[in-house]
Amino acid sequence: MVAHFATVLRDYLSTKAKVKKQKTQLITFVPEGFKGGWRKSVWSSGWLCDADDWMCDFDLPEAHTVTPYLFPHVICATPLKVDGYIASFSRKICIVVEFTSPMEENISKWRKLKQQKYEELEREASKNSWTLKTMFIEVGARGWVPKTVFSALRTLGFLPTLAKALCDKLGFIALKSSYVLWLNRDNKDFKSWRLSVPNISLAKAGHFPVPKKEKLPRLKATLGDEKQGAVSSRVEGCSKIMLRLL
């Protein structure tokens, strides 16, 4: 779960940085006689909108083959080894990401324990003029994802489509991992490995929402009435083929 979340988050931050660098804003022209579709904001509000220089790191063996994983001491000195963090050193904001995958009936119990553990960390960080926020990603061992995970991803700044896709993927990873462990419960030579899960496409997950009815009115405005039916059927057929490929 940690590896997949880290991949999605890094893709999100890199895509966001590229969009911020674009100085020119494109204008969408609407043909005469048609209404312009309502367009969402590309980036929603959230914690990640408070800064532009975010850097993240996670406790992953493959990411720390040379140097060990450490929580930045400039934020606060702590013996705790958090699962991951997102930090902005210019704004002095740190978001701690904590993952847990207990049995579904124990999720609320472990959440209270982890909240108490990080309250002291928040106080220590405030002494160094840092704002520390905690984000809990809790997924049941049988794949159940509570609503708090979706709310946490939305608070972080993910759009609903990406947050929903990520919740589904994390639930699948937890369920698959539990199943592999159960199959090897009597295997003394069992060794863990990283599960291969396809990454989430940011464009497909709805980070750049474009009205779907925007292209057809343009075609109808430029073509004659006799060609509108043929063009519309071809566009719809191509769209279905592309969706199947994606």
Task: State the shape.
Answer: globular
Strand order across the biggest sheet? 1-2-3-4
Query: What's the alpha carbon Rg, rounded to whole Å?
Result: 23 Å
Biggest beta-sheet profile = 4 strands, mixed
What does this structure look like?
The structure is a single chain. The chain has 246 residues and is α+β, with helices and mostly antiparallel strands. The chain has two domains: 2-209, no CATH class; 212-246. It is 42% helix and 10% strand. It contains six helices and four strands, in the order H-E-E-E-H-E-H-H-H-H. The protein has helices at residues 2-21, 107-127, 147-156, 160-183, 215-222, 225-245; strands at residues 55-58, 84-88, 93-100, 131-138. Strands 1-2-3-4 form a four-stranded mixed beta sheet, sandwiched between helices. The protein is globular. The two termini are 23 Å apart. The model is unreliable at 203-228 and 241-246 (pLDDT under 50).
List keywords for this structure.
four-stranded mixed sheet; alpha+beta; 246 residues; 6 helices; 4 strands; disordered C terminus; 2 domains
Secondary-structure topology with pairs:
Layout: H1 2-21, E1 55-58, E2 84-88, E3 93-100, H2 107-127, E4 131-138, H3 147-156, H4 160-183, H5 215-222, H6 225-245
Parallel strand pairs: 3-4
Antiparallel strand pairs: 1-2, 2-3
Q: Nutshell version of this structure?
A:
This protein is of the alpha+beta class.
